[in-house]
Amino acid sequence: MTDKPTLIITEATDNVAATDNPALLVAEAVGRCLTLAETWLAWDGTPIVTDGANLWTPAKAVRRVQDHLIDHLAEVEALLAGATPQEDHWHGRMVTLDADWARFTELDLAEARSRWTRLGQAYVNRYATAPDAWDLPRSPNWTLREIAEHVAGITWYAEQVGTLRFGDSARIR
User: Fold this and answer.
1) How far is Cα 34 from Cα 72, in angstroms, rounded to an integer?
2) Torsion of CA 24, 25, 27, 32, to 10 degrees
3) Are the CB atoms for 110 and 38 separated by under 8 Å?
4) S-S: 30 plus which of 24, 81, 102, 120, CB 3.0-4.6 Å?
5) What is the DSSP string of 10-32?
6) What is the pLDDT of residues 138-161, one digit of tens each?
7) How far is it, in rounded angstroms, from Cα 142 to Cα 159?
8) pLDDT digits over 96-128, tens only?
9) For residue 50, what are the β-bridge partners?
């Protein structure tokens, strides 16, 4: 990583004390994402447009949440091992893949619930093994605490789809 990415801190930080495991922020954010995803069964197939240019579907939000969780967990593991984190090659939110247009079903929700919960718990467990490392400077990378705070920003992806209700059509936000 050459540039230090922009840090995203969510409202989750209000609920976790500075002395608590910072990865609890990630687990809390996973819970918020799942709460939103539970409403996505109502998606009518119409894309949601945000920021005037970004198309969102439930499957795209799921992909972005998962990519973000995986990417930064790999970064944490590399930093704790004293290795250089691999650069990610995700295409991110600026692209909408063909697979992003798939219906969002009960099984998709169950898969997301299982996967995200396990990934959130993996953060909590991993951070619990290294409390003395949470605030160590790791220039040019963030500290582990800053990474957890950033990853808690995964709620942003879920919020792009937001809360859906049966009978409502998607809209431009």
Assistant:
1) 19
2) 150
3) no
4) 120
5) -GGGGGS-TTS-TTHHHHHHHHH
6) 999 999 999 999 999 999 999 999
7) 25
8) 999 999 999 999 999 999 999 999 999 999 999
9) 54
Task: Return the CA Rg of the chain.
Answer: 16
Lookup: tokens for 46? 């119409």
Tokens found for residue 166: 């049966």
The letter for the amino acid at 141 is: N
pLDDT value at 6 more than 80: no
DSSP assigned state of 49: E
- How far apart are the two ends of the chain, measured CA to CA in Å? 32
The two counts, helices (H) then strands (E), for the chain are 5, 2
- Tokens at 73, concatenated: 């967990």
Count other Cβ atoms within 10 Å, centred on residue 68. 23
Q: Which residue has the higher pLDDT, 5 or 138?
A: 138
How does 24-62 read in b/e, with b if 16+ C-beta sit within 10 Å? bbbbbbbebbbebbebbeebeeebbebeeebbbbbbbbb
Residue type, 81: A
DSSP string, 67-100: HHHHHHHHHHHHHHTTPPPPPP---GGG---GGG
Contact 173, 46 (CB under 8 A): no
Task: Decide: residue 129, CB within 10 A, 0-12 exposed, 13-18 middle, 19+ buried.
Answer: exposed
